[in-house]
User: Fold ABC transporter related from Salinispora arenicola.
Amino acid sequence: MIANMGGPVRTGAAAVRLAWQSAPVLLTSYAVISVLMASVPVCTAWVTKLTIDELGSPAATQDRIVGLVVILAAFTVASATLLPCSKYLQAQMKRVIALHAQDNLFRAVGRLGGLRRFENPDFQDRLRLAQAAASNAASQVVSNILNVATVLLTVTGLLTALAVISPVMTIVVVVAVAPVALAEISVARRRASVAWTLSPTERREAFYAGLLTSVDAAKEVRLFNIVGFLRNRMFEERFAANSAHRKLDLRELRTQTLLGMFTATVSGAGLLWAGMQVYGGGLTIGDLTLFVAAVAGIQTALLGVAGTVARTYQELLLFGHYQTVTTAGPDLATISGPRVVPPLRRGLELRDVWFRYAPDQPWVLRGINMFIPHGQEVALVGRNGSGKSTLIKILCRLYDPDRGVVYWDGVDIKELDLDQLRNRISAVFQDAMHYDLSAAENVAVGDIVHLKNRERIHKAAQVAGVHDTLVQLPVGYETMLTRMFYAPNGGDDPQSGVLLSGGQWQRLALARALFRDRRDLMILDEPVGGLDAVAEREVHSAVRRHRAGATSLLVSHRMGSLRDADLIIVISGGEVVEQGDHDELMAARGQYAELFTAQAQGYVESSASAR
Assistant:
């Protein structure tokens, strides 16, 4: 996986380009200050040498000594001033770049029109790493690149100074540091590999941690007393990750200890040689001072560069995941110049539609042929796992079928503009979202352009039968439907947030779908399954009146709620096995009649037992 993310140079160029697009002025200022900072150590070393030589010279004058000391003090002040300026610019640049990178990332994620990638574990791992990269990697790469460049400028100056004293020692010092640089890069490669390998482990750890802290899971976790079980699972994943990191840390410790001893030995030998040269008159005390400063500066700088290069390499690998996500192509088939989506006039047709979630998994839909006439209410019936919800996702074009075609008034929906197509569809899914927003916003996200239209919000809530519930909340429709955040006008009182019941949330989700008014197709997949049978039938009747003359597709396990549909389609094993109205299907004595009779008999027996 990692090898496929492009070369470090190309990835680094992309990071620099992102930084330049995000903060050109900050980046330029930071680069200028970095260059100035690079020159200070070299100038300081040379002025220190000149000062010491001047102090030891018989021809020294007070004016020359004072002048050199003033220059030395000026460089010290410059160093002290430039460092905080550099840190400030780096912090500002990091924030601006992170904002720009996150915007790019989530725009790219938003361009993924389907669900297939989101249900792919590899993509989830890559997306998690891409989010981490968006927060820090790009700015860190740029900072590291500039840091390496400035350090190399410093090293060049110090090497020049060292070469004046001893070209041989210059080569020895550089060669001594080279193995350390290679070792640091090797460690960085291993760390990046471990980060990728541990992504599933860390996602599982986050999953268990989420269950331990989630409001939604709190009831079951405590009732079934599985806090300890989940905590143990969470720590098993953490221990596994820690073990992998510990092995890498130990390997790094051994390598760096050996190389550090080697580098220290070379430095000691160099200092011994320089001291002997001073004793023999071959070098001045100023030369020795410059030599010590140069050797220490070069080794520190090159070791720092080695570490920085290694960290940069690791950040580049991380940024590669960001690049992969932000440059990914569409997950649904696209054509140039998609057709405008006309209002539905004849209906929707599925012709020989086959679908499975992965090539190594069984078919979920097997040659589906069905027609949903315009202006009619069509019901889908079938046992759990028959393929009803998958078929709905195909109609919404959250997936494309592996074989077969879905037609919108005779036009393949792949040829239609995806945003326009979805704008003509409204839906309530089985697992409808609970948004941690106000009650009004929970309804209005169904058609966000009308977020402030309170009249439409109230009307949709009334049809869904949830209006009376919402107006009685602490601050009515402005009440936050969560305890996770405070309402904007609720002060610091957490009681300003309210948690709805399951049935109330289902009615609210229905209101959200109804707020998306005058859509050509309304899909209701178990929209109010949490309500009692009478309440569900009342809701279906209200929706039927509201949607009179429009096309609706209903799914419910309560057969009585569907018996008035214009057309009932029975699905079994991913295939259409029956279709007709209620009376026709009951007369056919097939699977529909069996399901309806069994459910009706259950109601009769329950009623008899109650009496």
